[in-house]
TrEMBL record:
<keyword id="KW-0812">Transmembrane</keyword>
<dbReference type="GO" id="GO:0046872">
    <property type="term" value="F:metal ion binding"/>
</dbReference>
<keyword id="KW-0472">Membrane</keyword>
<protein>
    <submittedName>
        <fullName>Succinate dehydrogenase hydrophobic membrane anchor protein</fullName>
    </submittedName>
</protein>
<feature type="transmembrane region" description="Helical">
    <location>
        <begin position="73"/>
        <end position="96"/>
    </location>
</feature>
<dbReference type="Pfam" id="PF01127">
    <property type="entry name" value="Sdh_cyt"/>
</dbReference>
<feature type="transmembrane region" description="Helical">
    <location>
        <begin position="108"/>
        <end position="131"/>
    </location>
</feature>
<dbReference type="InterPro" id="IPR034804">
    <property type="entry name" value="SQR/QFR_C/D"/>
</dbReference>
<feature type="transmembrane region" description="Helical">
    <location>
        <begin position="25"/>
        <end position="47"/>
    </location>
</feature>
<keyword id="KW-1133">Transmembrane helix</keyword>
<dbReference type="GO" id="GO:0016020">
    <property type="term" value="C:membrane"/>
</dbReference>
<keyword id="KW-0479">Metal-binding</keyword>
<dbReference type="InterPro" id="IPR000701">
    <property type="entry name" value="SuccDH_FuR_B_TM-su"/>
</dbReference>
<keyword id="KW-0349">Heme</keyword>
<keyword id="KW-0408">Iron</keyword>
């Protein structure tokens, strides 16, 4: 019995093709980013839910503002955002290549994944780096304590 190649849309790379093997790079990237994501996601969950007193109830605007006052956590969050989106969208590219057999639809779907990931990465990065922890006119009760001294 012969089992069909499940990767219909993306025929196997021939051994004499020139240039970098992007699929191999993507394969290695999924494993490397997976390992880094374990550290970033579990570090994030531990900090927010276990090391912070009050658990999930304590995650307020003031909490996030206080956390992002430290560039370490700002970069932690932004790298987690970038890696999760690049990893997730590259994973969706693999799923689409495996299951979508019509070339036109495959290209449209991969294009949609790339556009969605790019928009969300740009928006998330802008929000992180332009975040104002002490917005004028806000209820001081909701702001981090350091806003009072500004
Ligand atoms: C704890 C962190 C994570 C680890 C260790 C991890 C690991 C992996 C690995 C090793 C693969 C490749 C599987 C394969 O080629 O057969 C993969 C695929 C994938 N990952 Fe993750 N991942 C993590 C988080 C995420 C997150 C946060 C997302 C979504 C934003 C995501 C979405 C995907 C998708 C869509 C695939 C493709 C699935 C497939 O090929 O069938 N992963 N992940």
């Amino acid at each position: 019995m012969t089992i069909d190649n499940p990767n219909y849309a993306y025929p196997a790379r021939s051994s004499n093709r020139k240039g970098p093997n992007l699929d191999k790079i993507g394969w290695v990237f999924m494993r490397a980013s997976g390992v880094v994501l374990i550290v970033l996601i579990f570090g994030h969950l531990f900090y927010n839910l276990i090391w912070t007193e009050g658990g999930i109830q304590a995650i307020t605007f003031g909490f996030v503002a206080g956390k992002w006052a430290d560039p370490f956590w700002m970069w932690w969050d932004v790298i987690m955002l970038w890696l999760a989106f690049i990893h997730g969208s590259n994973g969706m590219r693999t799923v689409i290549n495996d299951y979508v057999h019509k070339e036109g639809i495959r290209k449209v779907l991969i294009g949609a994944v790339v556009v969605a990931a790019a928009v969300l990465i740009i928006l998330g990065t802008l929000i992180t780096f332009t975040f104002d922890p002490c917005p004028a006119g806000a209820d001081p009760e909701l702001l981090p304590s350091f806003c009072a001294t500004l």
